[in-house]
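Milestone 3.1: sequence recovery, worked example.
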């Protein structure tokens, strides 16, 4: 579902953030992207969501040719994915409920369905009771969880998350990752950028190490975690 061939990204100030990257991510994969700060991880994700355009190479995501896609088609591309941004990007003037519901309203879903689904993802990320709060009334970890709920609400076929547990305590991080694995087990492709080596060790799977704008390693590592051991039932997706 994701194909990159000889992709480079040079920012207007001359920084070469990605250098000649080629890789494929198939439907149903769970992929961790790791690497030092400034390595190019967020840039890689930004190319996938067409927030930045590659300088060279070919990228296709969910059937969209990213080198040719017209601006008016970008919303259609984004509808095929749920995105958790490193800096959350919540709407300050909207409360938690509306921030999450917004993604469903944008595609014209009926209010009744929205109500049910928003309630279920709020539960999933453990934010019950915070529905009426505005983002500035929440902690960093709570805002991060709103951003995750918003990414999940439309049941996308692909989830792209940039440090989704960067502001969350270890126990909650583990829970969030466990939910992502469960969602992945139901067929959703998940790409997660993380600094947390503990999580990568625990959950294993495919790990792509990006360093200095290139793919340094791309391995499958042994999974310690077995969803069947700890399944707590339906996660509402
Ligand atoms: N808009 C931009 N303009 C110019 N240079 C940029 C821009 N965004 C990122 N960079 C540079 O590109 C390189 C890769 O940045 P990127 O944000 O992809 O790193 P990262 O791996 O996500 O780091 P972190 O772990 O700190 O989030 C860095 O050298 C950064 O300074
Ligand atoms: Mg980053």
């Amino acid at each position: 579902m994701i194909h990159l061939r000889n992709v480079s990204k040079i920012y207007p100030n001359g920084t070469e953030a990605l250098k000649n990257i080629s890789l494929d991510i198939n439907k149903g994969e769970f992929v961790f992207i790791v690497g030092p700060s400034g390595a190019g991880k967020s840039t890689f994700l930004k190319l996938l969501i067409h927030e930045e355009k590659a300088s060279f190479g070919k990228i296709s995501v969910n059937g969209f040719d990213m080198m040719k896609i017209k601006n008016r088609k970008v919303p259609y591309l984004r509808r095929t994915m749920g995105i958790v941004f490193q800096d959350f990007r919540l709407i300050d003037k909207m409360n938690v409920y509306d921030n999450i519901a917004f993604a469903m309203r944008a595609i014209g879903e009926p209010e009744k369905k929205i109500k049910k689904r928003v309630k279920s993802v709020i539960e999933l990320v453990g934010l019950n009771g915070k529905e009426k709060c505005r983002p500035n009334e929440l902690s960093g970890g709570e805002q991060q969880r709103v951003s995750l709920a918003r990414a999940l609400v439309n049941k996308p076929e692909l989830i792209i998350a940039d440090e989704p547990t960067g502001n969350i305590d270890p126990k909650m991080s583990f829970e969030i990752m466990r939910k992502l694995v469960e969602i992945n087990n139901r067929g959703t492709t998940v790409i997660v950028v993380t600094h947390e080596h503990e999580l990568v060790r625990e959950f294993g799977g495919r790990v792509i190490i990006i360093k200095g704008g290139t793919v340094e390693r791309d391995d499958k590592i042994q999974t310690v975690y077995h969803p069947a051991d700890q399944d707590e039932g339906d996660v509402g997706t």
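The radius of gyration is 17 Å. The chain has two domains: 1-80+156-237, 91-155.
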